[in-house]
Amino acid sequence: MKRELYVRFAMCQVPYTIVRLIEQFGIVPSHELPVSTRLRKRYEQALQLDWIEESILVKGDPLFPTVLLTIPQPVYALFYRGDPSRLTLPRVSIIGSRTPSPHHLSRMRFLQPFFHPDLATVSGGAYGIDALVHRLSLKHQQTTIAVLAGGLDRLYPTSHASLFERILSNGLLLSEYPPGTPIQKFQFLERNRIIAGLSSSLIIVEAAKRSGTMNTASHALDQGKDVYCLPGCPTESFFTGTNQLIAEGAIPLLDPEEVSKSIRLNVDKWESRLL
């Protein structure tokens, strides 16, 4: 399929289920698509769209992270601001609560080995742990990638405008949503699959049982990714989510140096113990 069609479909948020049909059979009349009227209208709009070249990576582009094509609810296009070549670095996703515990700074210091110039961090640009991840990466002159839940011309949270500008100097802003897309609550849950999907491992600093962090963990587990959690005191609500994940099979993060090394060298977590 021509690149132009991928861009048109992405601009109109045509789901990958339809894109795959077009890849297989070519352009078909909208009434033949086995989808809802709403999605047929998106498809029709894409075919009629005036050509606009956006800062976008699509399936087939050399820098597009093809791993996103293999996850549940695949992603075939990403809008970006910044330097997309940063996507060639090994990546680790690090997330946590928007309202961190009183101990969050010492927990972040424990993660120092992940703030390494040969590694890119991925997080969600949100309040709390996400923002700290991006700021620590910038402090260590490390590439950091923020995956956002709306169009990149409508950055949220607005109070992080200066942080997002700093990220552009040494990283990347990504979104599956085209410019002009307003922020809606469900989009935060949708973008979590991208945060999980971009990396082989997900590091969770701390999380309560009911949180967006737990949603991202669920995506990572569904994708077969390694999920590492920092254990916490079981009597404190800040750690109930991460402790629960550990009880259900997530890996307690006890040696960040070992895990960081395995990600940078792209080896299995068990093989890394032999390095």
UniProtKB/TrEMBL annotation:
Residues in Smf/DprA SLOG domain copies: 56-262
Coiled coil: none
SUPFAM superfamilies for the chain: MCP/YpsA-like
GO biological-process terms attached to the record: DNA-mediated transformation
Signal peptide coordinates: none
Similarity field: Belongs to the DprA/Smf family.
Protein name per its UniProtKB record: DNA processing protein DprA
Organism: Exiguobacterium indicum
Gene that specifies this protein: dprA
